[in-house]
Amino acid sequence: MSKQLKILLLEDSAPDAELIQFSLKKGGIQFTPMIVDTKKDFTSAIIHFKPDVILSDHSMPQFNAAEALDIFKDHLQQQQRFAPFILVTGAVSEEFAVQCIKNGALDYILKDNLSRLPAAISNALEKCRLDNEKMKGTAMQFRLLEEQMAQVMSSKEKEVFVASEKAKYLERLVVGKELHDSVNHLMGAAKLCIDMAKRGGVYSEIYLTRSSRYLSMAMHEISNLSKGLTSGAKLRLGLREAVENIILERMESSPVKISCEFENLDEKSVDNKFKINILRMVRDHIDYVLSDTDTSQITIKISQVKKLIQVLISDNGVSLPASKKQMAARLKSARSRATFYAGSADLIVQPGQGCLLSINLPVISASLKEVDDLDLRYDNKSMLIEKVKNVISAFIQLPENEMQTSFADYLVEKLKYRYSYLSAIFSKVEGSTIEKFVISQKIELVKELLINDGLHLTEIAYKLGYSSVSHLSNQFKKVTGSTPSAFKKLYH
Asked: Which residues, including other chains, have CB under 8 Å from residue 410's CB and lie 6 or more apart?
């Protein structure tokens, strides 16, 4: 090694310090040493001496390697660089050594085997060099990403604006359609009655009374549409409470008794837009029944069976709606809202007994997508499988302190699909399970760490979340047919 290294030696034994320096010179390491044995001198040396490597004994009278490592790590973090910290000690428990490695030490050398020290320093420096290059590359990528994000955000803002305007436009279309279906025919009937009343005759008073009734009904419909635009506000307390509030409002202005029953409804399984759709259908049909039939009782039942929500609204009206056209309008409104969510609506008329509106809606989940296999073409499946593989690769590369969840939960969180669905699609396309793919990716990473980073098997097992070294060794042998140590010898 041609470079003159600055080596900070944390050691309270002068003979041991001389032995360490002798071993370094014998191994061809060119260096400038600084020897300290207190926390104050160690902290000062880090700042002013700026060491390339730190070699630390396990324990001094008032200071130890664990404290020194924490101080060094904080300093490196401020400088945004990597540098090796190696434990050089006479006697230390394997548990303490493993803990130091977990905390950031790159190696540990026993003083009765100092011949390993020069090679350990060379390997540690090479690892830090690669890590520093990765850090610089990551910083550059991050700057480029920030620039790209600034451009994307600008275009996204435009997309959001366009989408928002489109949503407003569609809402206006819906309101306009409802105005046409529910209000125009009432206004037309009112105008016709007024025209008939103008002609005079014995029926003029009757026509005026009818026109007044039709105008009142039209005003009621417009009022309902206005309330419908703010249905979201009613859902702050939930669908159940929103429906009950509508029932109370209608019963205040009508002698009709209205009751509602909820059965196994899981409101968390559907989003707010879905619930608003149900609320509007219930409200509209109640108003249709109150205006068009002679009824004394309306019964509502909203139930959920697995992934299907059913809404049943029945009345005991002895008279049918004023015309077939009004009855068709009632069904058309319900069907329009139901088909928007891939559902169905049917109106069953029972002369002399009333009507029954039956609405069936498949559950639209608030968070997770569950697509039927037939709805996902092969090319889309392949794209989804690639996303699964990328997410798994990212999960395996997570730092050990961030790997607090299972890969299955991680997949669901990132892709927003149920794990059972992802597993089925993966097996069908790849001919193998997600679990086997996870194992193969972990073993490939173990190979890389064994060859390039020179890590201890204990550290690798901890890094990749294995329960023990034996667990890692057994899985490695099962996949590759070789033990980790035998595999490592092939490349060293």
From this structure: 391, 395
